[in-house]
Design a protein that fits this description.
- This protein has three helices and no strands.
- By secondary structure, the chain is mainly α.
- The chain has a domain of 47 residues.
């Protein structure tokens, strides 16, 4: 009869300590993600895209960002001709 392997004791987090999940930014009590700045959000998105190898999202995000920038710059002006010129 072989001896049974020794099992390590489960790690129990302290009360009130936030749960730490590798690769996931810290969250807020309401369940939303918390980022210190906007650059942290962009860095998280880039690292997540690289981790999941979904490189096709980069041009989509650039296009959405460029479209948002155009709408922001032309707010209050006639935006429709600029948007219609993007459609072939």
């Amino acid at each position: 009869m072989s001896p049974s392997p020794i099992q390590p004791a489960p790690v129990v987090p302290e009360k009130g300590a936030p749960e730490v999940v590798p690769g996931v930014p810290p969250g807020r009590p309401d369940g939303r993600m918390a980022f210190a700045s906007r650059w942290d959000l962009f860095l998280y998105m880039f690292l997540r895209i690289r981790e999941t190898r979904r490189y096709w999202l980069i041009p989509v995000l650039l296009f959405v960002g460029l479209l948002g920038l155009m709408v922001n710059l032309f707010t209050g002006h006639n935006v429709l001709p600029a948007i219609y010129s993007l459609i072939p």
